[in-house]
């Protein structure tokens, strides 16, 4: 992948409207090379919703740098309030700018937007996207990844998850991150068994947590308050973690460990995910049997 010598730091991406934004002005190649933590998500604001733990951990660090990658152009998002009459192109421009503002607020190491359509991500440009992501990953070499989880109910989120996993599996084993986490957005992960549910503390810098989500003004309209929903879910996650213990934190995101899928290319993603579902079934069945909830 080549970097063009242009003031806007555009890279030689597949899509003409794709770009890389570096808040502190470092060159694109250098900015990616310093990456230690990366998230890959479907839409503008998904990284801020699902990977705030990473944003906060890198925020004031001298050694940890966060790079966010967004796959879609945001043109198909729901619109209400002052944005109700925006065209797909207008909302794409707006959301892309909001994403760059969020990166500035959060002091990201780099912000990459690839500007694909949702259909491209779900299936139409599968190989192209995975190849482009693999090039980015080789340039960045993060030790930790945050992506969508393999049980997300939003088709484009699931597509983004599969594209990320496909890209990771294209890398040489020595270039793959040490940890890969699948995070909740369009389906809570509180159904995971206690031993499999990963809890990420998101209580650091509470004002920053608000600001990086509220940067997406077009997604914080009266008919779709993603800002309140994301922050409220984190409080709910923290409060409802342990029924008989005092909360250790007042804010957390939940995730699942997808590292085995990157360590072993032979693992079937569908079967791997359904094992989590089977464990949920077993948990519910066991409690009902224990407390006399069945006739058998």
Automatic annotation (TrEMBL):
What the entry lists under Pfam families is as follows: PIG-L
Q: What is this protein called?
A: N-acetylglucosaminylphosphatidylinositol deacetylase
């Amino acid at each position: 992948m080549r970097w063009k010598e242009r003031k806007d730091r555009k890279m030689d991406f597949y899509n003409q409207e794709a770009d890389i934004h570096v808040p502190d002005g470092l060159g694109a190649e250098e900015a990616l090379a310093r990456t230690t933590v990366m998230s890959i998500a479907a839409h503008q604001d998904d990284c801020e919703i699902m990977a705030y733990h990473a944003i906060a951990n890198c925020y004031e660090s001298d050694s940890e740098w966060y790079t966010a990658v967004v796959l879609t152009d945001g043109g198909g998002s729901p619109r209400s309030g002052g944005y109700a009459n925006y065209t797909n192109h207008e909302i794409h421009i707006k959301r892309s700018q909001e994403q760059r503002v969020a990166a500035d607020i959060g002091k990201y190491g780099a912000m990459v937007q690839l500007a694909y359509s949702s259909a491209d991500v779900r299936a139409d440009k599968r190989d192209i996207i995975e190849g482009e992501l693999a090039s980015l990953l080789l340039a960045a070499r993060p030790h930790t990844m945050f992506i969508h989880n393999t049980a997300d109910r939003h088709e484009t989120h699931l597509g983004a998850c599969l594209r990320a996993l496909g890209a990771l599996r294209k890398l040489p084993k020595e270039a793959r991150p040490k940890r890969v986490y699948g995070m909740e957005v369009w389906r809570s992960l509180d159904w995971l068994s206690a031993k499999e549910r990963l809890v990420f503390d998101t209580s650091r810098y509470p004002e920053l947590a608000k600001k990086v989500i509220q940067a997406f003004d077009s997604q914080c309209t009266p008919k779709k308050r993603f800002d309140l929903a994301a922050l409220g879910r984190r409080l709910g996650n923290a409060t409802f973690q342990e029924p008989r213990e005092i909360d250790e934190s007042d804010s957390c995101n939940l995730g699942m460990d997808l590292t085995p899928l990157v360590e072993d290319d032979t693992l079937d993603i569908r079967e791997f995910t359904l094992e989590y579902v089977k464990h949920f079934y077993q948990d519910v069945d066991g409690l009902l049997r224990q407390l006399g909830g069945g006739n058998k």
